[in-house]
Amino acid sequence: MDKWNNKIAVVTGASSGIGAAIIKELANNGLIVIGLARRVENIEKIANEFNGKIFAYKCDIGDLNSIKAAFNWIEEKFEKINIIINNAGMIAGVRIFDEGEVAEQKISSTIDVNFTGLVFCTREAVRLIKKSEDYGMIINIGSIRDFSIPFTSWPTIYPPTKHAVRAFSEIARQELIVSEHEKIKVSNISPGLVKTGILSDQSFYDTRPHLASDDVAHAVVYLLSTPYNVNVTQLTIKPVGEKE
15, 28, 73, 207: which could join 39 in a potential S-S bond, CB 3.0 to 4.6 Å? Predict the structure, then answer.
């Protein structure tokens, strides 16, 4: 990790859960970290513990104007970045064919946060990574559901968005190669069930094998620790005992 010392990483969805664990882990490993989230006050509390290593900016990943404002601020303050970790995500508590405007809004928001926002955050990030003229990395946090979808009594739009993220990760990697920007690596992490606040019913985890947010943060550090000439494009992590 020494090669990333004092390099700049942007983490979306950094206010809680996996994102909060990632910004702490990166700061502990010597990086300068910019956390983006709507609940910016949560990031600011974490930043107070890290003596100028973590910065917070309010950003709604589901809103393109908010994304552009955030990255314009990053460019003005830091000029360039080296790493983007797209972690922001949500699960809508509606089925795809539920009727009504509320269902439509929740489905649209899930697509905007989980996929569309990720795409535009990556576009902005790559622009600033290129300015560094240095090595860079894109890490997308997906889900085990981007590989397999078991039959469920509660189908949602969440798995399709994660399938899209995995496909986007590979297309982004290919485009960077053909455009002669091989110094920017792309990885996709597909965790199994992770205990976070994304589910309103926390008892869901009681009878199911699950990962902790720190487990995903450690996977991020592993990817960043690989040599510059090594690109682990897909990393799947499961809790012991998890079934397909």
Answer: 15
